[in-house]
Amino acid sequence: MKHRIVVLGAGYAGANAAGRLARRLHRDDVEITLVNGDAEFVERVRLHQLAGGQDLKPRPLRDLYAGTGVQVRTARVTAVDVEAKTVDLGGETLAYDTLVYALGSVIADHGVPGAAEHTYNVAGKQAALRLRARLSEVTPGGTVLVVGGGLTGIEAATEIAEAHPGLKVAIAARGRVGDWLSDKAQRHLRGALDRLGITAHDRADITRVEADGVVTGTGAKIPAQVTVWTAGFTAHPIAAATTLEVSDTGRIIVDAGMRSVSHPDVYAVGDAALAEGAGGKPLRMSCASGNPMAWLAADVIAARLTGRTVPQTTIGYFGQCISLGRRDGILQFVTPDDQVTSTVITGRTAARIKEMICASAAWSVSHPTMMMPSRRRHLTATDTAATRLPTRV
């Protein structure tokens, strides 16, 4: 009987994990099933572009994995039973021997009244399309407010301002917009905001969202015909409903090999996992974390199933890329544990580098059989809980 590997979610992490497993393991010995709610791979790092009015290249998952041995199932995951080792797909049950959980994250409204009812976001394709449609309805001079001064907020605000120059765009942050960046990067960011006519509301703690704007902790009102919420993400809630050991934010706690510390037949990657990176710091939710987590998890699974040495590595960072519209950007270099350095690339060069990184990430998913490693090995060993790596968050 073939060893059944089920991968939940075909974002960057899940899609890369499925492809790498197919390259590592012999298809005579394993059955790999990739489950995703959308029939296409969606470039989440480009959803602000989709919201701004650009069209993304369609990437049907069945086409991407044709001939790889990966079976693609278009279905919504409604529950996971890690004791019975089954996944519920809306009434249909799918059994597994090894599960790779990569369901990612959803928008977090932090319980702010009105946020769920009166805001738009770019956390998913359909959400970005809804925002795109709404922006097309706003007449010149209309107001758009982006709540959140992090990477997603900055990219959304600058993209919308560039794509809709007739709108009045603002961005609000609890601290200072981009305040974690180096001094040089912050100066460039402020220049870009000024160039695009974006008003920055720093130290604006949003306590309520209304149909025509937001209210801050001081009682001040910031008017907006369209409010875009980018104030954080939280793990998809399905994991927290299982007996998996999760963090207080619902992320699956994993060891140094991306393996659940409570259930050795479950691996978690991407935004769904709480894993240690360089310096013992938790990896942040990002494509920069998800891809290497997926590669490592796939290599660990393959090594255990084929009786080979389990790889041990520490995931670290090199930079944070921020697009400021299509022709400007910031590449903020960081230490492996994600601390900013004084080295920064800005302007068109940074924009080109960001585009190259985004394109290469999509290419790796779109060409699952062309990436290394490509040697498929037969299963020769039975994985046991005793082989778990001890490191945990």
UniProtKB/TrEMBL annotation:
<dbReference type="InterPro" id="IPR036188">
    <property type="entry name" value="FAD/NAD-bd_sf"/>
</dbReference>
<dbReference type="GO" id="GO:0019646">
    <property type="term" value="P:aerobic electron transport chain"/>
</dbReference>
<dbReference type="Pfam" id="PF07992">
    <property type="entry name" value="Pyr_redox_2"/>
</dbReference>
<keyword id="KW-0274">FAD</keyword>
<protein>
    <submittedName>
        <fullName>NADH dehydrogenase FAD-containing subunit</fullName>
    </submittedName>
</protein>
<dbReference type="InterPro" id="IPR051169">
    <property type="entry name" value="NADH-Q_oxidoreductase"/>
</dbReference>
<feature type="domain" description="FAD/NAD(P)-binding">
    <location>
        <begin position="4"/>
        <end position="290"/>
    </location>
</feature>
<keyword id="KW-0285">Flavoprotein</keyword>
<dbReference type="InterPro" id="IPR023753">
    <property type="entry name" value="FAD/NAD-binding_dom"/>
</dbReference>
<comment type="similarity">
    <text>Belongs to the NADH dehydrogenase family.</text>
</comment>
<dbReference type="GO" id="GO:0003955">
    <property type="term" value="F:NAD(P)H dehydrogenase (quinone) activity"/>
</dbReference>
<keyword id="KW-0560">Oxidoreductase</keyword>
